[in-house]
Design a protein that fits this description.
This protein has about 290 residues and is α+β, with helices and mostly antiparallel strands. It has two domains: about 5-235, Hsp33 domain (3-Layer(bab) Sandwich), CATH 3.55.30; about 240-290, CBS domain Like. It has helices at about 25-35, 35-55, 110, 140-150, 185-200, 205-210, 215-220, 240-250, 255-265, 280-290, and strands spanning about 5-10, 15-20, 65-70, 75-80, 85-90, 100, 105, 115-125, 130-135, 155-165, 170-180, 225-235, 265-270, 275-280. The strands form four sheets. The protein has a five-stranded antiparallel sheet with strand order 10-11-2-1-12, sandwiched between helices. It has a five-stranded antiparallel sheet with strand order 5-4-3-8-9. Strands 6-7 form a two-stranded antiparallel sheet. Helix 1 (about 25-35) crosses helix 2 (about 35-55), helix 5 (about 185-200) packs across helix 7 and helix 9 packs antiparallel against helix 10. The N and C termini lie far apart (about 45 Å). The model has no long low-confidence stretch (mean pLDDT about 95).
């Protein structure tokens, strides 16, 4: 089954909603980066959140970067989404030791850490990108996304994320939802939403039970009802190419490129976001130097 997200609105028009099935994108990310279960769970939550947040921008050729630095063993998590919600990402340390809150429950907060920040960079195709950064609260990602919107964008938000790792260390299910109150929302809307969130419970059990993004939003919004506005397929997608890698090599400058050409017969360049490797021979480097 392909991953997809749905965007909508509560029937009273005061709550923006989005939910996602991100199982395949998290599986692909785990495969590319060779992550252990704790790293997969933390990385997967960030990819899931980044996809939903990137999709809400709707700026042609825009992008959104979510970066989490918590001081934990995973180091820095970086995820980038395009305007549709396709994502790519990387982590500093993929081989994180197993840490559990209790048997069967991975401790994502301990993997990420709380001594650091969550940073959002929105490239809206303007002169300068918008950058917002907040201290991490729990390192569980969902709580930290909620805090980011409240502190940096002054938008009351509820974010729930889930990545369930199977016994064979593969990704069983992944997904989540993001709810945002619009200005002027009455108390009865807020109360109904809080009741719905509490009644629905955590994201992971709903995903494990096989609920679709539409059904998850139905559970969470409850009596408010939902009007679905858009369905978008999403995936783990990297936009690297030999041309882009060549441009990156040019930025190294003549001196460093000359040194590479003289010392290396073959110079492999591995994309940090995917498993593509671009190989440049000394002859290729010479051609780049000629262009410079």
């Amino acid at each position: 089954m392909k991953d997809y997200l749905v965007r909508g609105m509560s029937m009273d028009g005061f709550v923006k909603v989005v939910a996602i099935r991100s199982t395949e994108m998290v599986r692909r990310a785990a495969e590319i980066h060779g992550t252990t279960p704790n790293a997969t769970a933390a990385f997967g939550r960030c990819l899931t959140a980044c996809s939903m947040m990137g999709n809400t921008q709707k700026v042609e050729n825009g992008s959104m970067t979510l970066q989490v630095r918590g001081g934990g063993p995973i180091g820095t998590i970086t995820c980038v989404s395009d305007a549709d919600g396709n994502v790519r990402g990387c982590v500093t340390e993929s081989k994180v030791p197993l840490v559990e809150k209790y048997p069967g429950k991975l401790d994502v907060g301990a993997t990420v850490g709380t001594d650091g920040t969550l940073t959002v960079i929105r490239d809206l195709q303007m002169k300068e990108p918008y950058i917002g950064s907040v201290p991490l609260i729990t390192g569980e990602i969902g709580d930290d996304i909620t805090a980011y919107f409240a502190q940096s964008e002054q938008t009351p938000t509820a974010c729930a994320l889930g990545v369930l790792i199977d016994r064979d260390c593969s990704v069983k299910v992944a997904g989540g939802y993001l709810l945002q109150l619009l200005p002027g929302a009455p108390e009865e809307t807020i109360d109904a939403l809080e009741r719905g969130i509490q009644r629905a419970g955590a994201a992971t059990p709903m995903l494990e039970a096989g609920l679709t993004p539409e059904e998850i939003l139905g559970q969470v919004c409850g009596d408010l009802g939902v009007v679905f506005l858009e369905t978008q397929e999403v995936s783990y997608r990297c936009y690297c190419s030999r041309e882009r890698v060549t441009a990156a090599l040019i930025s190294l400058g003549k001196e460093e490129l000359t040194q590479i050409m003289n010392e290396e017969e073959s110079f492999p360049v591995e994309c940090q976001f995917c498993d593509n490797v671009y190989r440049f021979t000394s002859k290729d480097i010479l051609e780049i130097l000629k262009k410079l």
